[in-house]
Structure formats: structure tokens, C-alpha cells
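Hey team,

Filing this mostly as a record. A colleague (T.K.) asked me to run one chain through the structure pipeline before their review meeting, and I want the input and output archived in the tracker in case anyone asks later how it was produced. No errors, nothing strange. Just documentation.

Input sequence:
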Amino acid sequence: MQTIDAQIQNALHQTSPEAAIRDVKHAVARELQSLDPKTEIKATDYFNHTFIPDFVLTWGSGGQRPSRDVYLRFSVDAPLIQRDLKSLHEESPAFIAIAGGNSTRESESAAREYDDCLLSSTSTLESISRENSRTPVTQMLKASLLQGGRGYLVGDSAAEVHRAVSSADAALSRLDESEVAASVRAMNDHLSPAFSSRIERVMQVMWVSQGGDAANFPGTREMVTSLSSGELGQILPFLLSLEDVTNEDFWRNLGENLALGHLQDLLHWQCSRNLDLLINANLDRLNARAAAVDPIQPNLFDELDGPPRWEVVDSHLHLRCGDVDFKFVDDRRKIAHRTELGIAPRWYEIERRLDRYGVEGIEFTSPGSKTRIRSSTTEGLRESMDMRALSEALGEFARVMAVELRWPRSRHNIEVDFDRFAVESVGSSVSLHILAYLGLDLLHRASPNSLRAFQEFVTADGKFPWWVDGSGRLGVPPV
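Output structure:
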């Protein structure tokens, strides 16, 4: 594949000026996109104009999206670039040289005077974009250059950033203090504080997840072992949008202060491997008050036999398991309006499934009567009365409207409402996977294989011990 400089030279040598400009801008746009695939790039109708940019880059969604103007120049050498910086610096644009050029002290000095602007070249951006980016730090460094890059990124300074991008991940895995320190310096020199501090915090998390001593991290900011709630809110959208990060320890260390509200703040987020790992690695920290359970009418492209997956829809966290959907809420009133959505079962239809739990209360209904019974002992209803006899006494048309269960080896009570097709905590919030398991088992009446597949999914094939007994963690009933 041709280098970006070769593509530009071939484009410029065309006889048609319109075709030359079009092809140059296409080549540069592809290079910008390769640095950060999440960038929205809009080309203007101008080329190398004095005060109208060639591109306008935007990020994110909503009404207050950050943006940056990009001006293409044949060179970012002084004295012409000094004129551009003086007249255009207020919006902190980027100036990209498309015809190479050498590093000069005059240009570097001018860049320092307007250090919120970025001066670079297509060849520099190409060398950085081609670096492999399978892990968070490398991806964050590359993606941050367009939005938060600053200063004179040509020559030796470009080499420093290139080295940081290419070696930061390996240096962190080796706990190489000197190499990590060099990456931190390069970030601070060539990224705005908002971006450099964000990446350094992620580097700290990775350092600890690799077994490094927090006190030995060679950074410039106060070292803490976990991201604050505010930092999580800022960083999560960036991390989740990266290529798959399959380091479970990273997501576990990242989520020490993770709460359901952080996921709700994502507004809309499609299912992804990163989102799955983030949630599954922190299920002991993520609690909800209730979950609405709904059957899904599959479309032509739905994979009903595919693995479960998490997603955020309309500021609610959802779990999709085959043809059933769970919507988790932090306030039971959010699903209080749900009535007559399910078909209440007869006792014998769910009795064997209920054998796995401690039944604390039950609500029956039959023509002309409605009964709710709660246990007055610590042993539960099963030990204090003949449940089958009670069901038979209510008649063949009796239906179970709801049951209150005690999760095994815990203090958590959960109500399963068959009429409203919902699972709700009684008292304090409970872990997402517990609500989902009960919904699958009792409302959806999933097969043993489906229940085991769900357990494997939330434990990341056994890497997280959410179902382990005898260790202070919640057990799971045998399937």
C-alpha cells in the first residue's frame, strides 16, 4: 500500500485541480479516520484556505459535541505558520503539513507560544496510526491526538509520541518504570491536560492490574488504585468504544467504584465485548432494585442461540438472553405500571423449580378469592405448611401470582411477580445476575443448559467466582 505522502503527491500531479483537491482530501481523511475511527469528519468545499478549515472533526453525540478545525498546509514551517497561528489560534485548531518539511526551531518556538494548537504532518500521523492498538493505552493515545493533541509534533517530538504509542502497553506489562515515565512525559507534552490525565489514570489502573506497586508508578499525578466516580463517568465512553480489551483484570480494577448509574449515563450503548467484560467483572458492585422481564419478538437477523449480551437503551441497562430481555432499574416505581403481562402459573408448574430456594411468601389467586401468605419463622413456608395441600385447597383454577424467595446462603429476599413479569428486591438492592437468574429460571422457565450458559457468561467462563460457595460470596442453586 502506498504511503500517505505518495498518495498525496500522485493526487497533486493530476491535470485536473478539482480531482487533485478531492483525492488529497480523501487520502488525509482516511488517515485521520484510522487514528480515531469514532471521529466524524466533515470536509469543507475549500482547500488550503487562509481562514476556512479543510475539515471539521466532531466527537460524541448530543448537542454539545466537541469539535476541532483542521487546516491542511503544504508546510508548517515558519514564517507562514506563525501568521496562521496568530490569526486562527483562538479555536485551538490543528495544522497538518501535506508536503513534508523539516523540523525547525522557529516553528517549534511558534508552537510553544500557541500551545493549544497542533502542528503536525501527514507522515507523522501515518506512522502513529499504523501502530498496533489492541490495548487501552495505545488506543487512547492514538485517538486522543486529533481531539487533544497540541504543540509541535514533527521531528524529535513526533518520535517521542510514536515511541510512547508503540511501547506503552509493553512497558506497563513489564512494569518498566523508565519506559512508562517516558510515555507519561510525551503525553503531558503533546496532549491537553484533560486527555493526558485521563490516560495516565488508565495507565495507573493497568500498572496495578499487572501486579505493580501503586507507590512505584512513575507518573506525575497522585496515585490512587481506583478511578473516582467522576473519572469513571468521563472515561467509560472512551474505553468502551475501543477495540476489544480482553484483559479481565483491567476491567476488574477499573470498576472498583462502578455503579449502575454510570451505565445509565451512557444513554445508548450497543452490545460489545468491552461492555460485557466491564459488567461481568464487576457484578458484585452492580446492584439494582428490580428487573422487568419481556419476551422479544425476534427479527430476521436475531441470533437466538447466541450468547447473552449487555446493552444500554434509553438510559436503562438491558440484558439480552436469547428471546428474553431484562431491563434493570434502580427504583421499583419505574416498572410499577406493568400489570397483566404474564400468565400466572399453577403451583405444580413451578414447584420443582422453587425447591431450589427458600420460599418466604406466596400470593395465590382463584375465582372469588385472593390469598397472600408469609412465613412467620426463619425456616420459611416450606417447613411450616404443606404447600401442595394449600394449592389444592384453593382449587384447580388457583394460580400463583407472586412468590417471595430467599436467595440461598444470603440475607437477600427477592419477589418474583408472575402477573407483572418482574423480579424485585425486597429491601436493599441486589446484584444484577441474581435478578436475571431468577427471571430466567422462574419467569422464562429456561432449560438447564440455558441456565448454565448464563452462569458461564456472567462469570466469563469461570474467571469470576460469583457462584462460589463458602467464600462470603453468594451461592447459586443447583440446576
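Quick notes for T.K.: Confidence is low (pLDDT under 50) at residues 470-474. The longest strand covers residues 358-366.
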